[in-house]
Design brief:
With 342 residues, the protein is an alpha/beta fold. It folds into two domains: 83 residues, DNA polymerase, domain 1 (Orthogonal Bundle), CATH 1.10.150; 244 residues, TIM Barrel (Alpha-Beta Barrel). The chain is built from 14 helices and seven strands. Helix 1 crosses helix 4. Bound molecules: zinc ion (ZN) (2 copies). One zinc ion binds next to loops. The site of one zinc ion has 4 residues, from loops. This is Putative hydrolase. GO terms for molecular function: phosphoric ester hydrolase activity; zinc ion binding. InterPro entries: DNA_pol_lamdba_lyase_dom_sf, HHH_MUS81, PHP_dom, PHP_phosphatase, Pol/His_phosphatase_N, Pol/histidinol_Pase-like, PolX_PHP, UCP036978_PHPhdr. Keywords: Hydrolase.
Length: 342
């Protein structure tokens, strides 16, 4: 079969499909590394190396990537790509497609500045390819050292990088400034307030002491959602139901009190789309719906291909009968920003 996408696109698509199919990241790294290695080279140089079989002499290009490049350079659909399209290219869910089509962006993702696997610009390019108008970059906050949370200094530097990325885009898509800020034990947020004020969107999440007793956890979460800078309550129970990090039960708290606090403070409840989270659980999702909460359907992607996970959350929101207008990322960018900074 013929293929005219070129070798970089083939390698990126392979990596995307592996991530979307939840394959191990070490498999993905080889292809993303090879794409990054040949991207700056003149196409004639890549074609010449492909023709004389010397691609693997380029730093970052291994044998399986070289095969993909050789086939793409010859204008053939790379076998590896064809196989992955069959394996991982189909729809992820039976439902949720209509709501997914109504989403204009994603409010929660990570780059390799914290615990994500890819550079900021790769996350942005993939979001563009998925049809988004905006993507909020929400790397972790300082206390989450295991995830290389960003110090105030690093976050300030990241804001400059985001400006530079946007300068290179045509304005149809915007990379927005955000954070996934840790909710500390007393409900305060783990970043300087003047810095939080410079961001477009702040997702606040509990990542520590998940087993705190219910009364204390309720106070902690209510305080966090009432914080004037908080826009989204991330993965509210913290449960893990499957996957290579193991499983754990959700935190215990007075969900009605927390969701009522969300309504009062105009904070959205996140529908976290990651298959190992499915957070909130269905009963809590329905409670938040009945209490009158706003929602944000987020991928919480740690790799570009995981940006496609949003449809899992869309399927759950559709099943729960949630009105799309109560989902803040169906809103145009201006409305979203007015809500988040009003
Ligand atoms: Zn999180
Ligand atoms: Zn996250």
């Amino acid at each position: 079969m013929s293929y005219d996408g070129g070798p970089v696109a083939a390698l990126r698509r392979i990596a995307f499909l592996l991530e979307r199919g939840r394959e191990d990241t070490y498999k993905v790294k080889a292809f993303r590394g090879a794409a990054a290695a040949i991207l700056p080279l003149p196409p004639e140089q890549v074609a010449a190396a492909a023709a004389d079989g010397t691609l693997t002499r380029l730093p970052g290009v291994g044998a399986s990537s070289a095969k993909v490049i050789e086939q793409a350079v010859r204008g053939e659909l790379p076998e590896r790509l064809a196989a992955l399209e069959r394996e991982h290219g189909g729809p992820l869910t039976g439902g949720g497609a209509d709501l997914r089509a109504a989403l204009r962006g994603d409010l929660h993702c990570h780059s390799d500045w914290s615990d994500g696997g890819s550079p900021i610009e790769e996350m942005a390019f993939t979001a563009i390819e998925l049809g988004h108008d905006y993507l909020v970059l929400t790397d972790h906050s300082p206390r989450l050292t295991v995830a290389r949370g960003l110090s105030p200094e690093r976050l300030r530097r990241q804001l400059g990088v985001i400006d530079a990325v946007n300068d290179h885009l045509d304005g149809g898509f915007t990379l927005l400034k955000g954070i996934e800020v840790d909710i500390l034990d007393d409900g305060s947020l783990d970043q300087d307030d003047d810095l939080l004020a410079q961001l477009d969107i702040r997702v606040a999440s509990v990542h520590s002491k998940l087993k705190m007793d219910a009364a204390a956890m309720t106070r902690r979460m209510v305080a966090a959602v009432h914080h004037p800078r908080t826009n989204v309550l991330g993965h509210c129970t913290g449960r893990l139901i499957t996957g290579n990090r193991g499983t754990r039960p959700g935190s215990q708290f007075d969900a009605r009190a927390v969701f009522e606090a969300c309504v009062e403070s105009n904070t959205a409840v996140e529908i976290n789309s990651r298959p190992e989270r499915r957070d909130p659980p269905t009963k809590l999702l329905e409670l938040a719906r009945d209490v009158g909460c706003l929602f944000s359907i987020d991928s919480d992607a740690h790799a570009p291909g995981q940006l496609d996970f949003q449809v899992y959350g869309c399927e759950r929101a559709e099943d729960a009968g949630i009105d799309p207008d109560r989902i803040v990322n169906t809103w145009p960018r201006e409305r979203l920003l007015a809500w988040a900074n009003g």
